[in-house]
Each structure stands twice: as structure tokens, then as C-alpha cells.
Write a structure and sequence with these properties.
The structure holds 2 protein chains of 2 kinds. Chain A has helices at about 1-25, 40-50, 50-85, 90-100, 105-115, 125-150, 150-160, 165-195, 195-200, 210-220, 225-250, 255. By secondary structure, chain A is mainly α. Chain B has 13 helices and no strands. The longest helix of chain B is centred in the first third of the chain and has 34 residues, at about 60-95. Chain B is globular and about 70 Å long. Classes of the chains: A mainly alpha, B mainly alpha.
């Protein structure tokens, strides 16, 4: 019974994705399902279409810049939270969670009003700024969960053996934390890549991303290319999920935890000292 | 960390603030998050002039008040349905690891990381006039009902979006429930149903609380899905906000609606924090 029910839920969850994938191979210009004929016509029109390719480029560019910025900001903060006890620590925790608490539409209105006097709406920079702030919480959860499991003695041992603080960080700490850091960066990328509400408000014409363009297209002409884009994006997501699973199984299951990072009940990972030498 | 351990580590550990580590993120969020929100809050009071008019307007004009109410009731529906659908799945994931669980996890992950717009588009086709469901109706010789641009269809799509969150949050708690407890209950003569009701379910209650609060607060802010799939007659608050800005340039009023949405969210989370502690929600 439970299995049948769960199977039905899996079908419910997957059916829209599968359906769109089938549609993407159908004949262009109709919403008939199943499509009357199959082919790559719609794919062809995607690769021939300037605006869709530009939107794809913008999406990837913004997501890459956003994940770099997020990592630069998050890694030191997560280290501070994991290693120090200081006054106001809880405040920083709350601050770091704020972007996820505030509903996306509220952030969208706030950014629209804030960025337009600065001339940053409809610009890549404006999008990167907004996405960086919004992707911070998820990445912080992942990265700090992986840091909680880190044994500081490894770093101490490196420094006692003569490594400078920086050298110890880059040669010992970060390599050990790599799975967690990679997943953190991946989450920031995916967050930015999929972000819709804020992008719809602030992306404008010059920084149009895929979600924004798809949204606009659904509202106006419902270009069948959406099915192709969706399928390609889902394919990329699948790839991301595979990377995630690999990273998870390869090293510590606990360090990465579930996507929301909740209840990070960390089993202390055992890091083999031999692997580091 | 227990309170005592925290106290001790405070006494022993460094009390100096690691400024060089936290200043970048602190400054960034202050300038590029707090400031924009603050500016919006300010606008909600002063645009077009310094009054509370925007707020009284939003809460008393029946069109706007009913939008707020509609948002709350839709979110409640989404939360309840997600809990009912998600609980058995999370239970399966937590108690019976195996191929099915692995496949389910993969399905959930893919869905989780597929954007709202993509999934909404899929529902647009699925429920459309030429879609498979409409064809099914026709196959039985029945004229398919209008499914797109109705409240049930947008609710269905929003449930689809929120279900993975609910399952994750439930699973996170359930997987820590020791299966020995259930065996102990069985040893003491409880049948599986009683063991579930008196042992497993109470232990999973924190997960239920987490899932419900998160799904509910996130649902309050839904924008893309109701905008593309829902009926224009039953707007959700986000649509109203976007309409006020994009079509009417009513910044002050839109800001006050956004503030109401924000306050609703924050109040709910504060109540949650009072009873359970927010830290539990995000590890």
C-alpha cells in the first residue's frame, strides 16, 4: 500500500517534467499532447534564436558570478561561526537567514525600488548582487554543516609542522572540506539559475535570464521553445543531482545533509590522516 | 549545543569578534539586503504622503482584504495537502531504505531543483485544452471542463512545488527515530498501527511542525504559479503587489502590501521560534 502510494507520488512529481521532455521533441507550434509527429524542429529553433541563446548566456554568467561571490562571502563567515564564540554571533546567524525568510516577491519589490535609482536594474551587476544575497542562506547552511564536522586538530597539526596559516587553510582545511564547499557552490549556482520572482522584476532587457524570458513568453506568445529550454535545464539539473549524489556517497554523508540542511545532526566524520599526507 | 556547553565555550573560547571573517558578509547583507527592505518599508509610509493610508487601504478595501484572505486560505490548503501526501512518502524513505527509496529521492531532488517557471509551464500543457487530461475526458465522450486559469489548477501546481520541501523536512526528523523503539513497542504487544500512533507519530511531530511552518510561509509568497495558472479573480497577494507596481506604479501601496506579507511571515516564524526555536528549522 505504502509502496503503491509512494510510487504514485513519484509519478505525480515527475509527470510534468517527462511531459515537457516529450513535448520538446514534438512538432513546433501546437500544444497537442501527445504530439502528432516527432523531430528536432523545436531544438533547431532554439539554437537559431538569438534572444533565447542570450538569455541562456545571461543565466549561466549570472549564476557563475553569483556562486563565486557567495562562496567568497560565505566561507569566512561559516568559519567564524564554527570556530569562534563571540557576542552577537546569533545576530549574524539571523542576518544570514533573512534572505530566505523574506518572501521572494517582497525582495523583488525592495530590489526594484533600491536598484533603479542606482541604474542597476536591467544589468548583470544588479542581478548578481540580488542573487548573491538570496543564495547566501542555502549555501551557508551547506557550508557550515560541512565545517561543523571538521576536526580542527588537522589544521593545528599542519601548523605545528611548519605550515603558515594560509598554507594550512589551502592545503589541509579546504581539501578536506571540498565536498561541502563544492555542493555549496553548486547550490548557489542552481539557486541563481532557477530564481524567478526577483529576476522578473529587475532583469529588464539587458540581463534577461531564462526564467524571466520563459515567464514573459508564457504570458504573451507561449513559444514552444520553452519546452526545449525546460528539458535542457532539467537535464542540467539531473547532472547536478548526480554530482550531488556522488559527492555525498564519496565522502561524508553527513557533511552535506539534505538540501535544506535541516537537522544537521552530524555524525563526527572520521578523516583518515593518511589521506592527507 | 546545550546551554551549559555554550556557556563554557564562551568562557574558554575567544570572545573577540572575528571581524575580518564576518565583516564582508555582514556589510554585504546590510547594504544589499537590509537597506533595500528598509527603503521599501519607508516608502510604504511616505508614498505618496506621510500617512498610514496605504495600510488602512490594504486592510479595509474588500478587494484587497479578500486577496490577503485568499492567500492565507490557499497556503493553508497547500500545507495540509502536502502534509497528507508527504508524510507516507517520508515514512517510506526513513523506514525502508532500498531501491524504491533511492528512486523516490532522485525524483524528489530533480523536482526540487527544477525552477518554478519550468514546472508551471508543464502544468500549463498538462491541464491545457489539448493536453492529455483533456484528451482523456474526450476519450470518454465528455467535454473537458475548464482547467487552466482556475484556482484548483494553480493550487495543484503549487502543491507540486511545495511537496519536495515537505518531504525533506519530515524525512530529516523521521530518519533519526530509532527503529528499536518500534520493535520495543511490538514486543510489548502493540500492533503496527498502535506502535505507529503511540510511538512513531509523536516522535515525528517536530518534523510535521517544521514542514507545515515552512511550507505555509513559503506558500504565502507564491508569485509565478498563481500568476500563470490561477484565476485573475482569486489573486494571491504577490500578484496584487506586482500589478500595483507594473501597471499602476503605486509604489507606496505595493510596498505596504509587501510589508504586510513580510510581517505575516515574520510573525508566524516568531511564534514558531517561541515554541520550538528557529535554530531547529535550519540545523
Amino acid at each position: 500500500m505504502l509502496r503503491v502510494f509512494s510510487f504514485l507520488i513519484a509519478v505525480y512529481l515527475l509527470s510534468p517534467t517527462v511531459l515537457v521532455a516529450i513535448m520538446s521533441f514534438g512538432d513546433a507550434g501546437s500544444f497537442h499532447f501527445p504530439p502528432r509527429s516527432f523531430g528536432f524542429a523545436v531544438y533547431q529553433s532554439y539554437f537559431d534564436s538569438g534572444p533565447w541563446l542570450v538569455a541562456t548566456y545571461n543565466s549561466v554568467l549570472i549564476a557563475i558570478l553569483c556562486s563565486i561571490a557567495v562562496m567568497v562571502l560565505v566561507v569566512p563567515a561559516a568559519m567564524a561561526q564554527a570556530r569562534y564564540r563571540y557576542r552577537g554571533q546569533e545576530m549574524l546567524n539571523t542576518l544570514l537567514m533573512l534572505p530566505i525568510i523574506v518572501p521572494p516577491v517582497v525582495s523583488a519589490v525592495a530590489y526594484y525600488g533600491f536598484l533603479s535609482p542606482l541604474g542597476l536594474t536591467s544589468s548583470i551587476l544588479g542581478m548578481v548582487i540580488a542573487h548573491t544575497a538570496l543564495a547566501l542562506p542555502v549555501t551557508y547552511l551547506v557550508v557550515s554543516a560541512s565545517m561543523k564536522g571538521f576536526d580542527l586538530n588537522l589544521e593545528r597539526a599542519a601548523m605545528i609542522s611548519g605550515a603558515s596559516r594560509v598554507r594550512a587553510l589551502f592545503h589541509v582545511t579546504f581539501p578536506v572540506l571540498r565536498p561541502g564547499l563544492l555542493v555549496g557552490a553548486l547550490f548557489a549556482f542552481l539557486y541563481s539559475f532557477n530564481e524567478s520572482a526577483v529576476s522578473i522584476f529587475i532583469a529588464g532587457r539587458n540581463a534577461e535570464t531564462l526564467p524571466k524570458r520563459m515567464f514573459g513568453s508564457i504570458l504573451t506568445d507561449t513559444d514552444p521553445v520553452i519546452a526545449v529550454v525546460s528539458t535542457l535545464v532539467t537535464g542540467a539539473t539531473l547532472l547536478g543531482a548526480v554530482i550531488w549524489l556522488l559527492a555525498q556517497s564519496k565522502t561524508w554523508r553527513s557533511a552535506i545533509n539534505w538540501p535544506m540542511g535541516t537537522h544537521a545532526e552530524l555524525d563526527r566524520p572520521t578523516v583518515k590522516a593518511g589521506g592527507l599526507v | 549545543m546545550t546551554r551549559r556547553a555554550q556557556k563554557n565555550s564562551k568562557r574558554v573560547g575567544a570572545v573577540s569578534v572575528p571581524w575580518q571573517l564576518i565583516a564582508p558578509v555582514g556589510l554585504f547583507l546590510t547594504i544589499f539586503f537590509i537597506l533595500p527592505i528598509g527603503r521599501m518599508a519607508y516608502l510604504s509610509f511616505v508614498d505618496p504622503k506621510f500617512t498610514l493610508d496605504n495600510y488602512t487601504h490594504a486592510l479595509t478595501v474588500s478587494l484587497y482584504a479578500s486577496t490577503i484572505w485568499n492567500t492565507v486560505s490557499t497556503s493553508l490548503t497547500i500545507t495540509i495537502v502536502c502534509l497528507v501526501l508527504g508524510y507516507p512518502v517520508a515514512y517510506l524513505l526513513a523506514t525502508r531504505p532500498g531501491t524504491l527509496s533511492l528512486v523516490l529521492t532522485a525524483c524528489i531532488l530533480v523536482t526540487f531543483w527544477t525552477g518554478f517557471v519550468v514546472r508551471t509551464y508543464a502544468w500549463l500543457i498538462l491541464l491545457g485544452n489539448a493536453g492529455p487530461i483533456a484528451s482523456l475526458f474526450r476519450a470518454f465522450g465528455v467535454q473537458p471542463p475548464q482547467m487552466l486559469f482556475t484556482t484548483p489548477s494553480s493550487t495543484l501546481a503549487m502543491i507540486h512545488i511545495m511537496l519536495p520541501y515537505m518531504i525533506f523536512l519530515l524525512y530529516a526528523v523521521m530518519r533519526r527515530i530509532d527503529s528499536q523503539y518500534l520493535r520495543a513497542a511490538a514486543n510489548l504487544g502493540a500492533n503496527p498501527f498502535i506502535a505507529f500512533r503511540t510511538v512513531f507519530f509523536p516522535l515525528s511531530a517536530p518534523g510535521v511542525a517544521n514542514g507545515c511552518i515552512l511550507v505555509f510561509t513559503m506558500s504565502l509568497g507564491f508569485f509565478v504559479t498563481p500568476m500563470l495558472l490561477g484565476s485573475p479573480r482569486d489573486m494571491m497577494i504577490s500578484q496584487l503587489i506586482s500589478q500595483q507596481i507594473e501597471q499602476l506604479l503605486a509604489w507606496g501601496f505595493a510596498s505596504s502590501l509587501a510589508m504586510i506579507l513580510l510581517c505575516l511571515t515574520v510573525i508566524l516564524l516568531l511564534i514558531y521560534n517561541r515554541f520550538f526555536g528557529l535554530t531547529r528549522l535550519w540545523g
